[in-house]
Amino acid sequence: xxxxxxxxxxxxxxxxxxxxxxxxxxxxxxxxxxxxxxxxxxxxxxxxxxxxxxxxxxxxxxxxxxxxxxxxxxxxxxxxxxxxxxxxxxxxxxxxxxxxxxxxxxxxxxxxxxxxxxxxxxxxxxxxxxxxxxxxxxxxxxxxxxxxxxxxxxxxxxxxxxxxxxxxxxxxxxxxxxxxxxxxxxxxxxxxxxxxxxxxxxxxxxxxxxxxxxxxxxxxxxxxxxxxxxxxxxxxxxxxxxxxxxxxxxxxxxxxxxxxxxxxxxxxxxxxxxxxxxxxxxxxxxxxxxxxxxxxxxxxxxxxxxxxxxxxxxxxxxxxxxxxxxxxxxxxxxxxxxxxxxxxxxxxxxxxxxxxxxxxxxxxxxxxxxxxxxxxxxxxxxxxxxxxxxxxxxxxxxxxxxxxxxxxxx
Length: 410
Prior knowledge:
Blueprint: H1 8-52, H2 60-64, E1 67-73, E2 75-91, E3 94-97, E4 103-108, E5 115-116, E6 121-125, H3 128-163, H4 169-202, E7 204-206, E8 211-213, E9 223-224, E10 233-236, E11 241-248, H5 252-260, E12 266-270, E13 277-286, E14 296-303, E15 315-332, E16 337-339, E17 342-348, E18 354-358, E19 360-365, E20 368-373, E21 380-384, E22 395-397
Parallel strand pairs: 1-22
Antiparallel strand pairs: 1-21, 2-11, 2-15, 3-10, 4-6, 4-9, 5-8, 6-7, 8-10, 11-14, 12-13, 12-15, 13-14, 15-20, 16-17, 17-18, 17-21, 19-20
Helix pairs in contact: 3-4
């Protein structure tokens, strides 16, 4: 018998099976090597990140800690010491114009709201009754003067006859008494004439002061009386005008010596928001008593009010200047910070870092404050952005309006 060679397919099938088992193993080995390489790369990258403080590029973190602030220089200047109070504009004179005689109101010679000078004709009362009274008094006086003249001539005759003893002494004395009686009547008549003329003058009502006329209270054609309470119109003096404002009684020792020495003390009248100066005047006087309920005393200032800036009964904020300090070191009030240890400012140094500097603030005026100690002229103090700062913080100064002026934005 002829030998049959081994079947090739069987042996080839074994090799093929072995190759098929080896191929997945190599693939898993490759995946493991790749994974280890990725883990190694990540560990190195993470280590570098921790050493540099994060994933930011060098220099980027330092920039993130730079605070943008605004600063101004401390400078010498003037600052005032003031006392503030809520005041009321008060006219120096207010007059209610009334009729001094009874009669019909014939005409008015003013416009409501007009500024009238003293002596201007305001109104006229019907003058005819007073003209008649004047004529009657003058007629009575003429009659009495004629009688007096006749009585005096008779007295002269009686004197001559009495010297000759031709008449009795009683007749002479009676004639002499008649002359005296008629002389008294003439005086009475003259008084009646003056009264009638005065009543006729009162029929023309004139302005007693210079001031602004209010709204009329009576229309022409009405009967007015001297006893009427309302009057015809009210005139208020506007130039000059006063402001009365209360201040604490503790301010008297500061003010009274200056008043006695006649030292001028300016007073400014501000609007309600304390932003706009309406007028400027001078302190005139202080009341003579203290209000026991409020512990305040009234101050009175006088204002020229040439342009009628102030109006009667207007509420204003009065600011009395006691003293003007020159050469004070001034900084914006916003630069003054408060802490547990007291007041301080952030001073910008030449290396663009800030220093917390304790200071002793003094008086304030508006948005400025005087610093008694702790600062030198020319030093930059932070006025905006201080809430982001601490000792040694790096800062970047904001330019104002883009011109490089290191001052706070307005």
